[in-house]
Design brief:
This protein has 12 helices and 9 strands. It is an alpha+beta fold and 361 residues long. A hairpin with a 3-residue loop joins β4 and β5. Bound molecules: adenosine-5'-triphosphate. The site of adenosine-5'-triphosphate has 19 residues, from β1, β2 and β3. Pfam families: Pkinase (PF00069). This is Protein kinase domain-containing protein.
Length: 361
């Protein structure tokens, strides 16, 4: 079982600026007082009681910590320490200074497939490592793929946020409805037993977006998106994929496969000719092909806008709840900040769709 220290984190670390926010708390820059080394602190609110709607179950934080403690890889964010107080847990994690990979790419004028593949290879190496350790991430998406340092000549990819991750135990079935609609595999929506192949589906979606700036299954609503996934309704729209090599399309086609047992694994991806060309002709094809930068920049701008919108909505919802709590009296939960109150909207449409599909069948 993961050991959470009971020391006051602020005695050992000076708490700095906010780096980002998630559903259950904030990530802040922290400086270790004894060494002046910078880290990131992930502050997670804990549920106050069984009936509380706010915060995380301690068990779920323990799961995230135990999984992270078992993973040591250059392309996976590392964890150093964990502190616990009455109301929150603080994970001291590797500080990742380079921001999100998609933001880094969106700042470029152009990017060849060869350059994009350098990043894809690192993502696949991180994923292959975790899958060999029987860990599935289950929330691979652009927001969770960061860069160690964007000013470095060859920045390292860092996969973050193991809040939905699961370690498989031989003989035990695992099902989950969590995830972000655009990126989740059909077996999640259908509430089938899951394996690490669900991550490979998400990598297929991420690659599709990276090359074209289009999201393959995106509908006008989450429900429509989920329906598109279940019915495998996607195509390589010629206008957006005019600069894409056939090898890249083949790579995606072998990931966006409904049958999880037929989907490429991370190791198979690493030897696919798009990632590891077999001859000069294949190398030349990759160099001649590029990502659709105009469309990619548009996708990324929309994505960032949606993230800000969600953050503002969460803040508003939190403020409304706080007012209601105050009106009800002092017994009610008290929170550190707006983000920790954000509802997990990711799971809702999936369960909604599942109910709808089963009631129709
Ligand atoms: P979610 O609600 O998506 O599950 P979460 O509460 O689990 O999120 P994270 O996704 O781990 O939180 O982190 C939230 C944000 O904080 C990230 O999107 C990123 O911008 C920033 N962040 C997370 N980890 C680090 C890190 N190690 N270094 C720098 N910034 C980070």
């Amino acid at each position: 079982m993961a050991v959470f220290k009971l020391d006051n984190v602020e005695d050992l670390y000076e708490i700095g600026n906010v780096l980002g926010s998630g559903h259950f708390g904030q990530v802040r820059e922290v400086r270790e007082r004894s060494t002046s080394v910078l880290w990131a602190g992930k502050f997670l609110k804990l549920k106050k009681g069984a009936g509380s709607r706010l915060g995380l179950e301690r068990k779920s934080v323990e799961k995230e910590v135990e999984i992270l403690q078992g993973l040591q890889h250059q392309n996976i964010m590392s964890i150093r320490d964990v502190f616990e107080s009455r109301a929150e847990v603080v994970l001291i994690i590797e500080l990742i200074k380079g921001g999100e990979l998609f933001d880094f790419i969106a700042e470029k004028e152009n990017l060849t497939e060869t350059e994009a593949i350098e990043f894809m290879t690192q993502i696949l190496e991180g994923v292959s490592y975790m899958h060999k350790k029987n860990v599935g991430h289950f929330d691979l998406k652009p927001e969770n793929i960061m860069l160690s340092d964007k000013l470095a000549p060859n920045p390292d990819i860092k996969i973050i946020d193991f809040g939905m991750a699961h370690r498989f135990i031989l003989g035990e079935e695992y099902k989950s409805l969590g995830g972000t609609p655009q990126y989740i595999a059909p077996e999640i929506i259908n509430f089938e037993p899951l394996g690490t192949a669900a991550d490979m589906w998400s990598i297929g979606v991420i690659t599709y977006i990276l090359l074209s700036g289009l999201s393959p299954f995106q509908g006008d609503t989450d429900e429509e998106t989920l329906r598109n996934i279940v019915s495998m309704s996607y195509e390589f729209e010629p206008h957006h994929f005019s600069q894409t090599s056939n090898m890249a399309k083949d790579f995606i086609l072998k990931l966006l496969v409904k049958d999880q047992s037929k989907r490429m694994t991370a190791d198979e991806c690493l030897i696919h000719p798009w990632i590891k060309p077999l001859n000069r002709t294949q190398i030349a094809k990759r160099n001649r092909s590029s990502i659709n930068m105009k469309s990619f920049k548009k996708f990324n701008a929309r994505r960032k806008w949606k993230m800000s919108f969600n953050m503002v909505s969460a803040c508003n919802r939190f403020c409304r709840m706080q007012l209601q709590c105050k009106a009800r009296g002092p017994e009610q939960p008290e929170l550190r900040d707006c983000e920790s109150d954000q509802e997990d909207t990711g799971t809702k449409p999936a369960s909604l769709l599942r109910r709808r599909l089963s009631s129709n069948s």
